[in-house]
Amino acid sequence: MIELNKIYNMNTFEMLKQIDDESVDLMICDPDYNVGIKYNGKSYTTSFDKYISDYISLASEAHRILKPTGSAIFINYDKNNSYLRCMYLDRAFHEVVNYVWIYATNTGFSPNKLPTAHRSLLHARKSKSSVMYKDSIAENYKNPTDKRVRKLMKSGSKRQDALFLAIL
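-> structure tokens emitted (168 positions)
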């Protein structure tokens, strides 16, 4: 039995097996992105096909443990999330929305391509009744001089929708 407010050092899939069906409100999945490369002195030898198969298994477990009102967030490179979405999420979940998390700290190291300074975040809602607490994570408007934003602010709105998961 998994206890709340406790840290576990164990295989993710073994831990997920211990979680009851439809008992979780939100699951955030942020697996290792590196597939078949050497990075920071470590070799990642998993094949892409095996990686995607495991990623789909993770998403399937997320679907199993989520309450009907629950959601899962999958953070990864665009390519990995595209495969996950096409091969599983769009068929299993009620709705999947793609967000982009941009961060300026990734300088990159390849002489042949630009750095990947963003990640794809797939927000998979289990059902139409899935709950989103966006007011808890959205930031104030960054462009208050835009006429559409001025209109929203005049009507009492103080938050923007675009900064989903600003807490990451």
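The two ends are 28 Å apart (CA to CA).
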